[in-house]
Amino acid sequence: MKKTLRLAALLLIFSLSSNFSVFSFGKADNPENTETQEKDVKSEKTEKSENTNKKENPVKTEKNQKSPEEKTNEKSAEKKSDKNSEKNDSKSDKTSPEVKAPKKKILQHDGYLDVNYTLENYFNFKAGLFRAEFFGKTGSFNIYCTNELGKEVPLFSQTNLCTSTGFLLKIDEKIRRLNSESRILKEVRRLENDAGVQLVYTIDNNVRFVIDFSFISSTAEQPQDIIRFRTYTINLGLLAHSVDIKGIFDTIPGESSSVHFVTEKGTKIRNENRFIKEEIHSERSATCTNGTTSFQFIFDGNGIEPIDMISFANIDELYKMDWDATIRKGRGFTNIRAYEDSAIMVDWPSFHLSPDQKVENTIYIAASTNDEKPRGIAYIDHTDIVVKKDEPPKDAKVPEKPVIVKKENPEKRTDVDFIVSPIKDYQLDPEYIQALIDKIDSLQSSKDVNKKEIQRLNAELDAILAKLRQR
What we know:
Layout: H1 2-27, H2 31-56, H3 68-95, E1 108-110, E2 115-120, E3 122-127, E4 130-135, E5 140-146, E6 152-154, E7 166-171, E8 174-177, E9 185-191, E10 197-203, E11 207-216, E12 226-235, E13 241-249, E14 261-263, E15 268-269, E16 273-276, H4 277-283, E17 285-289, E18 294-298, E19 309-314, H5 315-320, E20 342-347, E21 351-353, E22 358-368, H6 376-381, E23 411-412, E24 419-420, H7 430-445, H8 451-469
Antiparallel strand pairs: 1-2, 2-9, 3-4, 4-5, 5-6, 7-8, 7-13, 9-10, 10-11, 11-12, 12-22, 13-20, 13-21, 14-15, 14-17, 16-19, 17-18, 18-22, 19-20, 23-24
């Protein structure tokens, strides 16, 4: 009985195990078969891809095949090269002359001086023996003489863009150094057809000061060896001004010698000295030389307006002095800062500048090389130089009988020692009257009170008010 039960159990187990195996392998293939099938499918795919690659890239070999890292490096390198090429293209476009054409300079006109000009920031002007250098930013300049060997000798000091040489204006008791104040508008004008150069300084939109450089030949056979310095002081405003002018020239030739300057009369200047009106007329000029190249300043002669005073002193001392400089005759040109640093100061007479009025002053500078004497004095003495004046033309008909024109008599005030000229229409303008009152107030509140100027302005104001009462 037990044996039969064991046999039945074994049969039952055997039947269950056989059913399970049949069930599992009936649903899935043999693993060996599946692996071979998968390998066959993969091989077919690779063969297809290789065939397609061969069709597209028939020359491709194992050496041309690259790893993913190499491919990424190549891509980054290509991007960088593209960026660099774009930058280079942009730079080449910027630097190409076709993109940026030079600006055409505008020809302008000055109605006061009747000249056409173009503006320059920095300008070199060459004529004959000279090369003149102009700096628009500082309003400074220098003059060079070229000798026969082609070497240039500067006339003025070159330190600080040649700003130690320049002009000072005293306008209504206020001193203005033209090439050092940033508030003063400075211009370098190149005249049309290279007729010359002008340095222009506009002060508070009221007064314009112009230095006109003209280059002249002393004889027809000689290259340009003379420069005419002609200054124009122009009143652009509505008010009159009292003006004083000084020119300071920081010379270089002659400083290596014991004699710095020699006058036309033969006076040798070794230290501080001064010439006033009568002495200027007899001495006439001052020449400085380095032995071969000479420069001659001409202060007296035909076509030169009168000069009050010529001073010779150390350059620093001249700038330190008060407006009415005190020269100590016999003091040397050496100080703590510089050794034998001599300079010339030209002081013109003060003048009254009415609105729209123009006042001229002139000096000449002549140059020579090869140890010759400059021909400046000879040129002025033997040339008819005419100073421009408002004169009738030569062809104007003179009337047989004199024409009597009634004019208003100048008004003399009993309380003031001034003669007031007839009042004009522009002086009756309320803006002019207010500006005149403001000017009187500013002068009265200043430290250095100019009583004569205040009295003159008060006399003008009273005359204007009297004219208005008559209306």
